[in-house]
Amino acid sequence: FTANTSLAHYCRDNGLLLHIHRAMHAVIDRQKNHGMHFRVLAKALRMSGGDHIHSGTVVGKLEGEREITLGFVDLLRDDFVEKDRSRGIYFTQDWVSLPGVLPVASGG
């Protein structure tokens, strides 16, 4: 988290975008019995200053449940997100002035 934030500051100072690759996400978030949900990783990315991330899709190699995927895409982009358990959003999230992150569907 600290390294990502430092890199984000460097990118801002030098006019660069910071792309966060989703490599190794499956080790952390695909296991049902341990790890953390990608929603948590997405929030950490937004708080640490990333500009865009492979967010996954509802089909393909980064596939996930449709409503859950759309829920964390909203958490990345929107300034205010209402609680909606069907979309995996368990409490209202107000990001105030924290910049959003562009969700990117990777190819392949």
Protein model, in words:
The chain is of the alpha/beta class and 108 residues long. It has one domain. 37% of the residues lie in helices and 11% in strands. The strands form two sheets. A three-stranded parallel beta sheet has the order 1-2-5. 18% of the residues are buried.
Structure in a nutshell:
The chain is α/β, with parallel strands linked by helices and 108 residues long.
Radius of gyration: 14 Å
**Bulk shape:** globular
In which range does the helix fraction lie? 25-40%
Give the helices and strands as they follow along the chain. Answer: HEHHEHEEE
The low-confidence parts are none
N-to-C CA distance:
28 Å
> Numbering strands along the chain, what is their spatial order in the largest sheet?
1-2-5
Count of distinct strands: 5
* Beta-strand fraction estimate: 5-15%
Q: Helical stretch count?
A: 4
Secondary-structure content class: alpha/beta
Largest sheet: 3 strands, parallel
| Mean pLDDT across residues | 84
**Whole-number tally of structural domains:** 1
Keywords: Chloroplast, Plastid
Pfam families: RuBisCO_large
Protein name: Ribulose-1,5-bisphosphate carboxylase/oxygenase large subunit
Domain Ribulose bisphosphate carboxylase large subunit C-terminal: 1-108
